[in-house]
Amino acid sequence: MKKYFVISALLIILTANVSCEKFLAEKPKKSILVPQSKEDVRYLLDYYTTLNENPLLNFTLSDDWITTTPNWEGLNPWFQNSYLWKEEIFAHGERSTDFSRLHRKVFYANICLDILGKIGGNGDSEVSSLRGEALFVRAAALFYLAKLFLPHPDGGPDTDNMQIPIQLSADVNAKAEWMTIKNILDRIEADLTEAYSVIEQKAAFKTRPDKVTVKALLSRFYLYSGNYGASLDAANSVLNSTYKLLNYAELSAGKPYPFTLFNEESIYYGYHSNYLVTDGPASYINPDLYADYVDNDFRKQLFFKLDAGGKPLFKGSYTGGFSLFTGITYSEILLNAAESAVRLGRIDEGMGLLNTLAQKRYKDLKVWTENIGPDPLETVMRERRRELVFRGTRWMDMKRLAAKGELQLPISREIRGVVYRLENDRQFTLSLPLFELELENKFN
Question: Which fold has domain 206-407?
């Protein structure tokens, strides 16, 4: 696995990326294409087609969507298995693109950190900020690995017995460290804490992280971990920034894609571009979820379109096109704050935050207010479900809610007349791909 990563890291300079082409143009006589300078690190960290693309598994495993048997039969085997929550998703000898891509991100970040460590800061703010970016990239990738391949920290007595291999060094001869969920969450928190202390205040592009981005990811991280006080504190830092909610009343539902790329609500850009599930006829909105959008809700027309048979398809990506937006938005952080406040017993604060969102999402706020149920937490979670559909966060929410006994199980899907169920905590932790484990054993 490590040799594969080394080759990938070197070939990254040769890919069709404008920054990488510039690298080659400026250094045509280099005998070995090994990143060495802070400029090289900048190019590596701007490789958004790798570093900003997030796992498709977060979508395929979630209950945001359903498909039909004919459509399911046209999917790749691993895709079929993940849709049905099979115990073994990947066949023997089959690579997991998501698993390898996340490890590649970690490795690229390690390379950048190693280079920057050799350069030394000496008061260079650019070097410090680049270090912060690399730490953020590594933390974000580790967080995805934890959500997919490790149990939730509240997942029961066997939680500490499950481990995954993580390479935290750019040294290809160093052995990977086998990490439990506690180990990896501690590493993520440490990386993000340091990143915040050194990263620049405001990034030039939304494909790069900055101080607000780090706080946004910390809010998500602490919400997943159940540290609601810390999640609320981090969220409030974001809510006090220059970002703001889109006013959905000002958008046109008649457009094929109503939202623009890098809009004022988008904090950090992330995406996935699998056409079959992002713009093809294979992925319908979960009918129970679609039924939860009332006509008073602008999102019903802005997020969805109906096919010829009247089935709802998604069109509301913040990428402005068919690619799924899987980054971080102001609305998500507002919902993190609302949920955290309610769970901490600060009901008025939480509902006030939710009201702020509702003002930008409903045609008649009075109608929305009159239909709020008696349970504040249920109200917040229903709005979270409606707001973050197809954003890549649902699997994270399902997993943390299941660990707390708050997710209604079983969840079922039917293919070829057979009903498959997601019904226990163990199914929320994916088995490691055998192919990747064999590579790890080979090079260790």
Answer: 1.25.40
* Pairing of the two strands 304-306 and 312-314: antiparallel
Residues with Cβ within 8 Å of residue 23, at least 6 apart in sequence: 13, 39, 40, 43
Q: What b/e readout covers 166-193, taking b as 16+ CB neighbours within 10 angstroms?
A: bbbbbeeeeebeebbbebbbebbbebbe
Please name every residue paired with 177 in a beta bridge, in sequence order, or none if there are none. Answer: 166
- Count of residues in the chain: 444
Q: Give tens-digit pLDDT for 48-57.
A: 999 999 999 9
Distance CA 292, CA 295 (A): 10
The domain ranges of the chain are 1-200+419-444, 206-407
Do 1-200+419-444 and 206-407 come out as alike in CATH topology?
yes
Query: Which amino acid is residue 415, in one-letter code?
Result: I
**Verdict on whether the full-model pTM lies above 0.85:** yes
Q: Phi/psi at 244 (nearest 5 deg)?
A: -155, 170
CATH number belonging to domain 1-200+419-444: 1.25.40.390
| Residue among 78, 75, 134 nearest 110 (CA) | 134
* Cα dihedral 195/173/429/235 (nearest 10): 0
Model pLDDT, residue 49: 93
Residues 2 and 107: their CA atoms lie apart, in Å, by: 9
pLDDT tens column, 145-176: 999 999 999 987 778 889 999 999 998 788 88
Q: For 73-89, what is each residue's pLDDT tens digit?
A: 988 899 999 999 999 99
> Under a CB-based contact definition with an 8 Å cutoff, are residues 268 and 213 in contact?
yes
313-to-157, 278, 284 alpha-carbon distances in Å: 40, 9, 5
- Report the alpha-carbon distance of residue 10 to residue 111 in Å, rounded: 10
424 by Cβ neighbours in 10 Å (0-12 / 13-18 / 19+) ranks as: exposed
Residues 6+ apart with CB under 8 A from 237: 212, 215
Q: Which two structure tokens, joined as six digits, stand for 96?
A: 């997991």
